[in-house]
Amino acid sequence: MSNSLESLAIGLDVGGTAIKAGLVNRRGHVVSTQTIATEANGGVDHVIERMIRLIRALTNEAAAAGSRIEAVGVGMPGTLSRKKGMVIAPPNLPGWRNIPIVKWLSEGTGHRVVLDNDANNAALGEFICGAGRGVQNMIMLTLGTGVGGGMIFGGRLWRGAYENAGEIGHTIIVVGGRRCGCGQLGCLEAYASATATVTRAMERISNGEDTCLRAELNNGRLLTTEMIVSAARNGDALARDVWEETCRYLAVACLNLQHTASLERIVLAGGMSAAGEALRRPVLDAIDQIGSKMLGDPPDIRLAELGNDAGFIGSALSVFEPA
Amino acid sequence: MSNSLESLAIGLDVGGTAIKAGLVNRRGHVVSTQTIATEANGGVDHVIERMIRLIRALTNEAAAAGSRIEAVGVGMPGTLSRKKGMVIAPPNLPGWRNIPIVKWLSEGTGHRVVLDNDANNAALGEFICGAGRGVQNMIMLTLGTGVGGGMIFGGRLWRGAYENAGEIGHTIIVVGGRRCGCGQLGCLEAYASATATVTRAMERISNGEDTCLRAELNNGRLLTTEMIVSAARNGDALARDVWEETCRYLAVACLNLQHTASLERIVLAGGMSAAGEALRRPVLDAIDQIGSKMLGDPPDIRLAELGNDAGFIGSALSVFEPA
Fold it and tell me: How many CB pairs lie under 8 A apart between chains A and B?
């Protein structure tokens, strides 16, 4: 009963395999959390039903603790429209086309519901109570299967005119370069995502280059960036090359963002940021090496602090944002 | 006497060779204009003295017409600090180091004085009464000796945390590519500025390729982008190649800005934009060709409308901006 009268938000982070949710207060403190399987194969109605049940469970939990629910924030993979409250066509959720999710969840739970994309919400979470604390201008790069971005300008999420700002992964860094999943040539994502890093390593292994990573493959395992980072740490030349290359591409992305937007901070998040200083340090070194000496204020690069919780925390906090 | 009681601003656009100035009303209407030589060789004090005399002359002109001066806006090449009112180290004005220009001009004229960099002021001018009318989110690329940028987000100039946002010319588009004047490799400016366009043409001419441009050089003339555009128009293959390449690099820059910031409009300004549709059309074609089909809302590319007046008009309008 210590939280008596406190107003809490429910935050959901909906992915292709799991839905993470939590009760969060206005300062980002997590009161409780639940994770369920998305069961995306069950279809749109099935997933919506699961989300409604999850929201009701958390509402009851809040009520039992004497708190009331301010609203529900939902983070989903794009494409979507926050303004319209619609999920449009997320690649990770096949079959979801133009779903008025805000209307459905709001009717199903009685709460005000706010929708945004997961990268924006994760950036908001880190901004308010993670690696972005204390600054007003930051960009968070989410490094995983793809490269996503969330931008905070002047203390507010910047979504852009068409709500799709922050697609840093699809900025071109090598004109005429590697083909990206989006169709363009030379996108950052085609060089510096986890997927691209593994691809670049596999290409060199297929070419017969010597590396301890071959043993992993011979054992029938799929190559991951964790294996590459660990092999690099153990002095494997190929792994070191590939990883340093990834970090160099990320340094280019950071420099480009800094030249464009003059930021206080760039936060590295997502699966690949689990490498920690083995990621941050070589990115900083590469910025120092390739960046213009005229760049008066180099970006302050930090590792994300909230891990997988950034998404639902940010979703919850998004309900407190001015409209 | 028709402007009686109207409040006007004085705008100055200070370049290495000329100072353009004007009396401008709050809606960007130019009441009168004057241009004088900078006489930068005369030193800092000499130029400041000339600026003060120019401001006094325009003040008297306003008074004679029954108008009062709201304030004076000054646009200078960077680096500078708007917040501190200081010119720091502009490459085009040798000898200018840490000049408290706002203090000096304000003491010399009795007016409130506001300083900003020329690219920002030109973007503000186009935003309020040129090619940016009617939108809230735009970026203006100034294409000349270098590639500059000015950004309007949510109807306000975005200067960034360290006041140097918009350095689009130094975003890297070819990792490990051509050396830029800033020291980096592969900057947009090293490929798509007027200087870089001429350099790329000269390289091919030096390699002995056939082109009508050789005649210009044999006549002792310096190659310009105007000559290249005109030769391209007349079917010269080398000129067409070089110009199309420039437009392709600019298309990459536009795509990158669109993916990053989700803009309503991108305005092409500066000397090279005098090419008009011969610039805009191939940039649009290249965006269509190389841009991701996933890019829901392609950038709306327009040509600047105010020409060389954008600078002083924007300088004047900057005094009406909230602080």
Answer: 138
Q: What is the pLDDT of residue A295?
A: 62
Res B221 pLDDT > 60: yes
For an interface test with B, give the residue of A163, A180, A200, A294 to mutate (most B CBs within 10 A).
Answer: A294
**In this predicted model, what pLDDT tens digit does every residue of B109-147 receive, in sequence order?**
999 999 999 999 999 999 999 999 999 999 999 999 899
Same domain (yes/no): A140, A117: no
B143: helix, strand or coil = strand
Residues of A in contact with B174 (CB under 8 A): 173-175
Cα B200 from chain centroid?
Answer: 22
Give the global pTM.
0.93
Domain hosting A41: range is 7-125+309-318
Q: List the structure tokens of A271.
A: 């699966």
Q: How far apart are CA B179 and CA A181, in angstroms?
A: 30
Cβ separation of B168 and A291 shorter than 8 Å?
no
Give tens-digit pLDDT for B149-197.
Answer: 999 999 999 999 999 899 999 999 999 999 998 899 999 999 999 999 9
| Rounded average pLDDT over B259-275 | 96
Of B135, B175, B292, the CB nearest to A183: B292
- Paired strand residues for B10: B23, B72
Instruction: Evaluate whether residue A2 is within a structural domain.
Output: no
Q: By the 8 A CB rule, do B264 and B138 touch?
A: yes
Q: How many domains does chain A have?
A: 2
Q: What is the pLDDT of residue B26?
A: 93
Q: What is the pLDDT of residue A98?
A: 95
Asked if A135 and B294 come within 8 Å (Cβ–Cβ), the reply is no
Instruction: Determine the Cα–Cα distance for residues B68 and B71; give it in Å rounded to an integer.
Output: 9
Comparing alpha-carbon positions, the chain B residue that sits nearest to A260 is B166
Q: Report yes or no for ipTM above 0.85.
A: yes
Dist CA A99 CA A133 (whole Å): 34
Question: Are the beta carbons of A106 and A290 closer than 8 angstroms?
Answer: no
Closest residue to A183, CB basis, from B257, B259, B294:
B294
Range A108-127 average pLDDT: 96
Task: Please indicate, yes or no, whether residues B249 and B291 belong to a single structural domain of this protein.
Answer: yes
Distance of residue B181 Cα from the nearest chain A Cα, in angstroms: 9
Of A174, A248, A264, the CB nearest to B161: A264
Element (H, E) at A49: helix A44-64
Among A135, A184, A265, pick the best mutation site for testing chain B contact (most B Cβ within 10 A): A184
B260 and A164 in contact by Cβ < 8 A?
Answer: no
Query: Does any domain span residue A268?
Result: yes
Chain A residue whose CA is closest to B185: A290
Give whole-number Cα distances, B201 to A61, B224, B244, B286, in Å.
70, 10, 12, 20
Q: Are residues A221 and A152 in the same domain?
A: yes
Nearest CA in chain B to A259: B167
CATH code for position A176: 3.30.420.40
- A121 and A153 fall within a common domain: no
Q: A162 and B262: CB-CB below 8 Å?
A: yes
Q: What is the average pLDDT value for chain B, to the nearest integer?
A: 94
Res B298 pLDDT > 80: no
Q: If you average pLDDT over residues A168-173, what whole number do you get? A: 96
